[in-house]
Amino acid sequence: MELRTAVSPRDVKHYTTERLREEFLIRDLFVEDEIKLVYSHIDRIITGAATPVSKMLKLTAGDELRAEYFLQRREMGVINIGGAGTIIIDGKSYQVGFKEGMYIGMGAKDISFESKDASCPAKFYINSAPAHKPYPTVLIKPEGEPESGVVIVKDENKVELGCLEDANHRVICKYILPGQVESCQLVMGMTKLEPGSVWNTMPCHTHDRRMEVYLYFEMQQDAFVMHYMGEPSETRHIVMRNEEAIISPSWSIHSGCGSRAYTFIWGMVGENQAFDDMDTVDMKDLM
User: Fold this and answer.
1) Average pLDDT, the chain
2) Which Pfam family is an annotated match for this chain, by its short name (predicted)?
3) Was 212 annotated as part of a binding site?
4) pLDDT (0 to 100) of residue 147
């Protein structure tokens, strides 16, 4: 597990491009037959991925957590951005398809990942946060019919925003949040930009009470996203490619503009779970 420390906005003002990428960018997440994890001191979030191809992958705590098992004191959200796969939790198997997710509550001990077809492997993207109590483990589907142990994303949690004229026509699909899938602090979902739109989270905002991580995907090999971060009066940018993630501290804006449409997964942890608790930044105030 890679460890990253917290950073001060006063220091970030002096970072080179290389240093910015070193501190905030997470590359090479989806490595065949490996689980890759990055532990950030910023609200203690763990960002990672499990990519089983030829074998089943078992999630372990590692020495870094000083725990008997990974979710002894944590909770976890997972969204699959690859082929069909299976997540086995304490002996129970969950079939997780493309863009389907899971919330796994504190106390789950044995967690493993495998793919249905090695030629089209699952790509399980992971966000994990400290937890104080167990909540039910559930499979989350954007669409479908309700069934035992499965949560279907509610219509009110599929929000269409923006317009083509502003190049930010997008659909937000909220997976883990109060009233739908309960958690201690993790909030997680996915935003898809419609064809012709390239801007996300614009006008931008900060939220001192939560940090956030973005994973950009569904991008062609030659495409990129210019991810904007930093204080509103001291913005910086990081060039991001397909299936790369970015850590966004509470004091930082988090917005992006791509060379073409894309999709991103957002995960938030921190003081509260209020999705709309944000401090908006007027477009004229960005520098």
Assistant:
1) 96
2) KduI
3) yes
4) 85
Residue that wins the pLDDT comparison between 257 and 284: 257
Longest dimension (CA), the chain: 54
- In the block, which residue shows the tokens 């973005």? 214
207 is an annotated ligand-binding site residue: yes
Hey, what are 139's tokens?
A: 């499979």
Quickly list DSSP for the chain.
-EEE----HHHHTT--HHHHHHHHEE-----TTEEEEEEESSTT-EEEEEE-SSS-EEE--HHHHTSSSTTSSEEEEEEE-SS-EEEEETTEEEEE-TT-EEEE-TT---EEEEES-TTS---EEEEEEE-SS----EEEESSS--BTTEEEPPGGGEEEE--GGGT--EEEEEEE-TTTS--SS-EEEEEEEPTT--EES-S-EE-TTEEEEEEEES--TT--EEEEEEETTEEEEEEE-TTEEEEE-TTS--EEEESS--EEEEEEEES---TT--EE--GGG--
- Are 210 and 269 within 8 A, CB to CB? yes
Q: What is the predicted pLDDT for the residue at 275?
A: 87
Q: Given this model, what pLDDT does residue 203 score?
A: 86
**Is the preceding peptide bond at 178 cis, omega within 30 degrees of 0?**
no
Q: Under a CB-based contact definition with an 8 Å cutoff, are residues 22 and 58 in contact?
A: no
Give the residue extent of every domain in the chain.
Answer: 9-285
Structure confidence by residue, pLDDT tens digits, 28-83: 999 999 999 999 999 999 999 999 999 999 999 999 999 999 999 999 999 999 99
Query: Other CB atoms closer than 10 Å to residue 178's CB: what's the count?
Result: 12
9-285 — its CATH code? 2.60.120.10
Q: What angle do CA 194, 196, 197 make, to 5 degrees?
A: 65
